[in-house]
Design brief:
By secondary structure, the protein is α/β, with parallel strands linked by helices. The chain has 2 domains: 96 residues, Rossmann fold (3-Layer(aba) Sandwich); 132 residues, Rossmann fold, CATH 3.40.50.720. Helices cover 33% and strands 20% of the residues. The strands form 2 sheets. It has a 6-stranded mixed beta sheet, with helices on both faces. A 6-stranded parallel beta sheet has the order 9-8-7-10-11-12, with helices on both faces. The protein is globular, with a radius of gyration of 19 Å. 41% of the residues are buried.
């Protein structure tokens, strides 16, 4: 980090809780690597009522936004990009020319992870969970012209909101539904995360074209990912999505597409293993 008082601009992440976030480590690694006059701060906030004025006064360049503010932040922004507008959720903002603009890089992160694999788009897609991440992923799947999508969720409230927007999506509350023909299975729920129960689904009868995508990244090897390995299926961990959405945010702020290397990934894995 090269602190220059004339050019210094802070970046950071707002949300609650954020003590588990690896974003400060990752972004400060890149800030140091590229010799930028900046620093990435974790900012646990109880509310965001006066955020707009505070950012302008405190000389911030931008922020990441996480739970629970991805939707409510929109009211404070001057403009949002097409992705954020369609999903009604923002995870990145930039302050430029005294204007706050919001973006959604979660979609970019998800897409980059998936397009590294040989994905059969003709097969059904099954999504576990119906929160904000699920909504972003459904939007991406619709852009990819996927016809057969099933969302599995225990409660109906979130499902009803998605159903209003996407009429042709199937819904189920049965976590033991038949998934053997699915080409893509995605866990967007908190199941499998540290401190939560595992996502209990069986992959032993699934077709061998299936790709298993778990957006949980702590732990990296969730029960779902371990099952995919056991069945020799293609899989994508939450670490891919996390790093790719962070790269997209960093590029929005600094106009630099940061490089990823093995030592960085190994350091992140080491930090995760200690939490």
């Amino acid at each position: 980090m090269m602190i220059n008082n004339e050019t210094f601009k802070a970046v950071g992440i707002i949300g609650k809780p954020i003590k588990q976030s690896l974003s400060p480590y990752l972004h400060n690694y890149w800030i140091n690597k590229y010799g930028l006059s900046s620093y990435y701060l974790p900012l646990p906030l109880d509310n965001i009522n006066h955020l707009k004025g505070a950012l302008k006064k405190l000389n911030f360049l931008g922020l990441n936004i996480t739970i629970p503010y991805k939707k409510s932040i929109i009211n404070q922004l001057d403009s949002i990009d097409a992705n954020a507008k369609n999903i009604r959720a923002v995870n990145t903002l930039i302050l430029k020319n005294n204007q706050l603009k919001g973006f959604n890089t979660d979609i970019i992160g998800f897409k980059k992870g998936l397009l590294k694999k040989n994905w059969n788009k003709k097969r059904p897609v099954v999504i576990f969970g119906a929160g904000g991440a699920a909504e972003a992923i459904i939007y991406f799947l619709k852009l990819e012209n996927i016809k057969d999508i099933t969302v599995v969720n225990r409660t109906k409230k979130r499902v009803t909101q998605i159903k209003r927007k996407y009429k042709d999506i199937n819904f189920s509350s049965n976590f033991k539904l038949d998934i053997k023909e699915a080409g893509l299975i995605i866990n967007t729920s908190s199941l499998g995360m540290i401190g939560y129960p595992d996502l209990e689904i069986k992959l032993n009868k699934i077709n061998k074209e299936a790709i298993i995508y778990d957006i949980v990244y702590n732990p990296i090897n969730t029960n779902l990912i371990n099952q995919a390995k056991k069945q020799k299926l293609e899989f994508i961990t939450g670490l891919d999505m996390f790093i790719e959405q962070a790269r997209a945010s960093f590029e929005i702020w600094f106009q630099i597409k940061p490089k990823i290397n093995i030592s960085l990934i190994n350091n992140i894995k080491r930090i995760i293993s200690k939490t």
